Amino acid sequence: MKLKNKVAIITGGSSGIGREAAILFAKEGAKVVVVDINTREGNKTVKAITEKKKIASFCKADVSIEKDCKKMVAFAKRKYGGLHILFNNAGIMHSDDGDSQSTDEAVFDLTMNINVKGVFLGCKYGIPLMKASGGGSIINTASFVAHLGAATPQIAYTASKGAVLAMSRELAVVHAREGIRVNALSPGPLRTELLMKFLNTDEKKQRRLVHVPMGRFGEAAEMAKAALFLASDDSSYMTGTEFLVDGGITAAYVTPE
Ligand code: NAD
To answer: Is 195 within 8 Å of 187 (Cβ atoms)?
Structure first.
């Protein structure tokens, strides 16, 4: 077991990548705090774990709210006695996020508050407990769109993921001597609710898929395996970098027919 006796907080654990990571991390021996705003689905994640006699609890928190982030870290300390893995994964892709001309300020602010400030607040409150627990690994979910101007514009989302990459590097440098590693996970386009809701027509899906050399959307379970690598000692000499798991999309200039 790769995460035996580790305590993990996973935000956005009610769906997609977060849910799959919670299940996989628990299978590998971690005690998992599943964090989300969606209580019903979060409890389903926990049930899927505890049914298999593994350990997890749900903590409702909105990562864009400071007191909620304080609460989720206090919850991990009270319930499991420490923190070794912080997976700042919660994020949104707003359906009204478009180009610079069509996107409302409110959509931009909301996206930055959840996708960027949420990572900052998770680290602000998670790092002291992680230090007190002897160090650990922080994984921040970014995206391939931090590298490519998207075929379907989403200005706020793209900017937010660029910020996650930059923030991850700085966090890594500042906390390296404290035994804390910080890396970003950058998924390619995935077949999760988040993207399927945004690419809500076959034409939009096809427009995205045409750029993926592998010719398919990725799966949340494939991202969970990559996150496990970053969370575990398998990546013990990795910090301040990015794990791109994207079906080859950022390597492609033109895709083969
Ligand atoms: P998802 O929509 O399936 O899951 C996201 C979860 O985050 C949901 O359970 C949602 O309730 C939760 N959430 C949203 N706002 C929250 C908040 N303020 N506080 C706490 N929880 C909140 O999406 P996913 O595809 O699993 O995405 C997870 C991460 O991966 C996101 O950061 C996303 O930007 C990123 N990502 C996704 C894709 C993709 O194609 N799906 C690609 C690259 C990056």
So the answer is: no
Q: How far apart are CA 25 and CA 10, in angstroms?
A: 10
Q: Are 82 and 135 contacting, i.e. CB atoms less than 8 angstroms apart?
A: no
Nearest CA to ligand 1 atom 39: 190
Strand 85-88, strand 56-60: pairing: unpaired
The third-level CATH classification (topology) of the domain covering 7-251 is: Rossmann fold (3.40.50)
Take atom 12 of ligand 1 and give the residue whose Cα is closest: 12
Choose the residue to mutate in 10, 15, 116 for probing ligand 1, maximizing ligand atoms within 8 Å of C-beta.
15
Query: The tokens 């931090």 sit on which residue?
Result: 146
Tell me, what amino acid is at 138? I
- Whether residue 232 has its Cβ less than 6 Å from ligand 1: no
**Exposure on the CB side of residue 82, measured as CA atoms within 13 A:** 14
CA 256 to centroid of ligand 1, rounded, Å? 30
| Amino acid sitting at position 52 | K
The one-letter code for the residue type at 204 is: K
∠ Cα 65 21 147 (to 5°): 75
pLDDT score for 257: 62
The count of C-alpha atoms lying within 13 angstroms of the C-alpha of 228, restricted to the half-sphere facing its C-beta, is 22
Q: Could you say which residues of the chain have pLDDT below 50?
A: none
CA distance 38 to 46: 12
Interacting residues of 239 by C-beta distance below 8 A, sequence separation 6+: 172, 176, 181, 182, 183
Does residue 80 have an active-site annotation?
Answer: no
Sorted by where each begins, the domain ranges of the chain are 7-251
